[in-house]
Amino acid sequence: MSSLGPPSASFLNYLPVPLAFGTSGLRGLVKDITDLEAYINVKGALRYLMRSGDIHADSCVVIAGDLRPSTERIMGACAQAIVDSGCRVENAGRIPTPALISRAISQRSAGVMVTGSHIPFDRNGIKINKSVGEVLKSDEAGIIDEVERMRAEEYSRSASATAFDHCGMLKCAPQLPLVDGAAEAAYVRRYVSSFAHAGLSGMRILVYQHSAVGRDLLAHILRELGAEVVSAGRSETFIPIDTENITDEQLERLEALVVSSEANGGPISAVVSTDGDSDRPLVTAVLPAAAVGPGARRVRFLPGDLLGAVVAEYLRADAAAVPISANDAVERWFGERNVVLAKTRIGSPFVVAALDDLRATGKRQRIVGWEANGGFLTGSDIELNGAILTALPTRDALLPILANLFAAAEQGVSLATLWERLPARFGRAGLLDNFPVAASQAILGQLIPAGTVVEVEFDGDSVVDCSRVDGARMRLAGSAAKDWQHCQATLTRYFTPALGFDAIARVNVLDGVRVYFRDGDIAHIRPSGNAPQLRIYAVSASQKRADRIVELALAEPDGILRRLERAFS
Fold this sequence. Notes:
This protein is α+β, with helices and mostly antiparallel strands. It folds into three domains: about 20-185, Alpha-D-Glucose-1,6-Bisphosphate, Chain A, domain 3, CATH 3.40.120; about 195-425, Alpha-D-Glucose-1,6-Bisphosphate, Chain A, domain 3, CATH 3.40.120.10; about 425-569, Alpha-D-phosphohexomutase, C-terminal domain (TATA-Binding Protein), CATH 3.30.310.50. Helix content is about 35%, strand content about 20%. The strands form five sheets. It has an eight-stranded antiparallel sheet. Strands 1, 2, 3, 4, 5, 6 and 7 form a seven-stranded mixed sheet that branches. Helix 1 crosses helix 4, helix 5 packs parallel to helix 6 (about 215-225) and helix 8 crosses helix 11 (about 400-410). The two termini are about 25 Å apart.
């Protein structure tokens, strides 16, 4: 977690690898998340929350986890850290991250969620929230300081005085309190009371359960709201699902589940699922077999940024925050509807901060946000069907799933028909896994000029407009303008006319490098914030072209990203 090398402890027989903050929470390899490392980070974070006045001694801290094989053991170490901090533990069990955070906020408690979200099972993580919601980027420095103090304290102990053995595991395995079902029950009520009881009657919905922690809860809520639910694909082995990187192979798997389910019953209306900790949705429409040609796929996946646009429309939002990576259809859609739209860096803490800023103006009443992965946040209380959907400023998968299904049901159309009403802008995302972080940083270092400018517009190879992160316009001349012209020229060497790319019209470097081409194509390169991955986001006027941009970027061994790696790292 520290930028410094890890200090040593005399009682350990290994060199610790500190956990690091990603875009949302701490992440690391399971082998590195020893009891000692989990304990140090949680106790340090709780010290920070106490010092900042967010919680106090004897406060309740809610803990939960996902279904990874390593989660139970890590939860035990976290619980021990909570108790040793003078706080009480409420064990919410294995529930979605938004269910944990909703419970914590409702009783002004901190929360600890043990989850690696969508990343592979050999990794895990710890997400800590304050009593008012997510830990923000502005909190990270204070947490890091307290964690380093805690690390120094624990490492200074002798082998006989420490509670940990030479492998960094607790000598006495802690026992978690019995599971308290209050958090799960409240999360179910949140949606059953806000959506019409029989509103999904007539829909037959396939829940792809895999290893998602909310798999049974999702099916239960859909049944409560009138749907006929078919559960499929349940796995006791952890399956990582990244809703920003849904592959053709995964879509073929979903289609096979649809075909099998329809052979044993009626038509399937939709397939729904979530990632591992159930804060990111996966939704596909299912087209009738007669409506698709030979070899065509019956399931249609809608990327999370567009899925969120449908939710915002359904909730009648008047202000929204989305990351810079969102499909530009969002900007077009809400620009026509007088909805204030704030663009942020990628990661829920940045979206949450933008929601706070929108609420602080006092000018907007129905404030929402979402990410390209589909996780949806509500920044204000929102009236829905005569009930109040209380603000939940953290990623949630259930709300976008339900809002899309109800929007289609209330309009009497299929999901596919509902989605066709969005602007004809198509997105695709992909990634290179096990991509060295240093290589990603080297690429960005070569492509992003120094200074405060985050967006530049070009006319030919001349800079004609630019803006800072606060949106203020400014003029560039001299060496600063030449640096951006060099950036444009460098990108043009990789995004070439031979590969179908038009001239570069605009470049945004708020988070990664987002390239806008004259013909409307968009390519966005960005390293993952919590794993050694380099991502590519593409937007175009056709799905075929968006898919092609990602294919060109990820091709091995000579795709665009590999060529950038060889050139700059």
